[in-house]
Amino acid sequence: MRELTSDRLDSVLKAGPRAAFDAPVIAFFDALSTAVMRHPAAKPYPDLATYGFFIRPRNLKQLQQRYVQDILIGKGQAFHIGPANVALNFAYSLTASLLAGNPTVVRVSSRDFVQADILITLIDNALASSGIPDMLAIVQYDHGSEYNRILSEACDVRVIWGGDETIARLRDFPIKPHASELHFANRYSALVIDADHYLAACDPDEVARKVFNDVYPSDQNACTAPKLVFWLGNQSEIETAKP
């Protein structure tokens, strides 16, 4: 196993939960957001810039107002298994977990993503100067590693990304009776376009570019990337609307 955040695993596994949207957690994301947005890679990797924008304090405060009406405390140790098909999915998963007040261990895929490597380095740097160094560890290990069992037995929350096969494999490792589990099984999307409305209300070239940019960076592996497109309307309108 490789610890990608300065050998923090032991301290994270000993940490207790915090209040949801705890001030030091927000401060950590503030520092991380600034580092991401200032990094030269934010321009060539839009998903990196998007994440940096998402975790800015103003947005997190809006989330807090939407979801937290009373004082809430995290459930406990959280173990997240990130997917291999979307480079920065793991980052949104850990963000939700930390905002909820949970000490979090995240296993990331060994698949090579430049933007993921950059973000993990920035996370490690931000943790080093934050008030929450014992709240997050990012690790990397093979599918068959004993750490799947160790981290599953230790956790109070287990979040499994990666589809049906990954879920089935991880279910072989039991969690505590009181622990919660959240699965993201195989999902597929379809796109439905009304050709008449599309031609009347949209710039077809602009929409086509946006759809392309949304679908193909992940090679249609993300569940939000449609694998089927259905056109509504008569044949003439459809042929005109198609890019």
What general outline do the C-alpha atoms trace?
globular
Helix content: 40-55%
Strand-pairing-aware structural class: alpha/beta
The average pLDDT value, as a whole number, equals 92
Distance between the termini: 47 Å
Question: Tally of extended strands?
Answer: 8
As an assembly, this protein is single chain
Rg over CA atoms, rounded to whole Å, is: 20 Å
Give the SSE string: EHHHHEHEHEHEHEEHHEH
Q: Tell me the β content.
A: 5-15%
Molecular structure report:
There is one protein chain. The chain is α/β, with parallel strands linked by helices. It has eleven helices and eight strands.
Give keywords.
243 residues, alpha/beta, six-stranded mixed β-sheet, 45% helix
Précis, in short:
The chain is an alpha/beta fold and 243 residues long. The protein has helices at residues 9-14, 23-38, 46-54, 57-67, 89-99, 114-128, 147-154, 164-170, 195-201, 204-215, 235-241; strands at 2-3, 78-81, 104-107, 136-140, 157-160, 180-183, 189-194, 226-232.
Q: Could you outline the blueprint of secondary structure elements for this entry?
A:
Elements: E1 2-3, H1 9-14, H2 23-38, H3 46-54, H4 57-67, E2 78-81, H5 89-99, E3 104-107, H6 114-128, E4 136-140, H7 147-154, E5 157-160, H8 164-170, E6 180-183, E7 189-194, H9 195-201, H10 204-215, E8 226-232, H11 235-241
Parallel strand pairs: 2-3, 2-5, 3-4, 5-6, 7-8
Antiparallel strand pairs: 1-4
